Amino acid sequence: MNHYVYRIDRPSTGEYYIGVRSSMRPIHLDGAYMGSGPRIKEAVRCHGRSQFTKTIIARVFSRESALDTERRLVGPDQVCDPLCLNMAIGGGAGPWLSNANHAGAWNKRHAAKERERWAAGQAERDAKTTARERPSRGLFDALD
2, 6, 62, 67: which sits with the fewest CB atoms below 10 Å from its CB? Predict the structure, then answer.
């Protein structure tokens, strides 16, 4: 299985989309795939594939690594960016900041709360990763 993180740009407007792809096809033969998000699909359908460029950002060994990379690249600030075609925070984080009304103005207070929730969740995920990567010292781990 090939896993990678990609970015699709529309140079004429500055719009962009960042996504993750896992495929059995070799990466260099997977160029036809242009994202699964509703906004990027609609944009490609309306404006034509020739208006977009796809760039591979990272090639990774596991789906989890790909999602982690996407999580770092697509946070609340990007989802709130009117040029970003992503509708949710990256990394399979769920619909915390689902951007169904992307064209409308965001409620700044609501966006700030969601950023705090996202940051707290990110800190928790980082702590779990750190604990997983740290070698076990047996009984004395609890004393740290």
Answer: 62
Query: Please, what is the average pLDDT of the chain?
Result: 77
Q: What is the pLDDT of residues 89-112, one digit of tens each?
A: 887 744 444 444 443 334 444 556
**What is the C-alpha separation between 7 and 18, in angstroms, rounded?**
4
User: How many domains does the structure of the chain reveal?
Assistant: 1
- Tokens at residue 46, please? 């309306």
Reduce the secondary structure of 10-76 to three states and give it as a string. ECCCCEEEEEEEEECCCHHHCCCCCCCCHHHHHHHHHHCHHHCEEEEEEEECCHHHHHHHHHHHCCH
What one-letter code names the amino acid at 47?
Answer: H
Query: Does residue 143 sit within a domain?
Result: no
Highest mean pLDDT among 52-56, 78-82, 104-108 belongs to: 52-56
18 in any annotated domain? yes
Contacts of 113 by beta carbon, 8 Å cutoff, 6+ apart: none
Token readout for 85 is: 């075609």
Q: How far is CA 25 from CA 29, 32, 85, in A?
A: 6, 11, 25
